[in-house]
User: Fold this.
Amino acid sequence: MVELQAASMAMAAMFVLGVVAWLISLAKRDVSIVDSFWSLFFLAGVLVYAWYATTLGSRATLLLVLVSLWALRLAGYLTWRNWGEPEDRRYQAIRVRNQPGFEWKSLYLVFGLQALLAAIITAPLLAGMGGSHALNFLDLAGLALWVIGFGFETVGDWQLARFKSRPANRRQVLDRGLWRYTRHPNYFGEATLWWGYYLIAAAAGGWWTIFAPLLMTYLLLRISGVSLLEQDIHERRPDYRDYIKRTNAFLPGPPKEAV
Assistant:
């Protein structure tokens, strides 16, 4: 009963946060702001779960720290990256397809949908924070996966930001650093750390939440991540076709020319 109440209140908190983000987007005429709020939906959820936890044990504290680090870093980075930029072309396309009245439709098409997805994907965090099992090897394995994922995401974002800051790299392809081994180290890192959360949840008995990392991985690969980003990127960066031929899309691996 407590878990159900916590899940309901967490979902409510995420939808309230989504409405706040939507109101900001109306003022800015830019729904790209939802990217900055994406990780904050999960932070809101885990804070609610912590509030409802009977005791904030070692596992709950670990998850609270990990989610806070990930959420605040990602939200801060995306806000900085998008500051002063026009609305992301992905959202521009959604805006065009859903006229007239996109301003109102975006409440459920963009902000409501992302809040709902976050509420579903946050299941391992609820299971992990509510579990009473002692810390075990699965927690350590989950933490190791999280560190790897967080490292890939953070370093990948930093390398890309540094690359884009140089005018000479305009329309060029970043194929150095982590980007030499995977075309999307940030997406790989995001998926990996969510599998880390899942292992921590499994250590608490939350095996059933496996749908959450599977859904997150699918979204990153097929919906909002790799597939969507690469639909027309070769038009903006002519060398990207060659980059695709020699570099794995998701899982890191040696460049094919080096095999």
Q: What stands out?
A: The chain has two domains: 1-132, 135-259. The CA atoms of residues 26 and 103 lie 7 Å apart. Residues 137-164 form the longest helix (28 residues). Residues 135-259 form one domain.
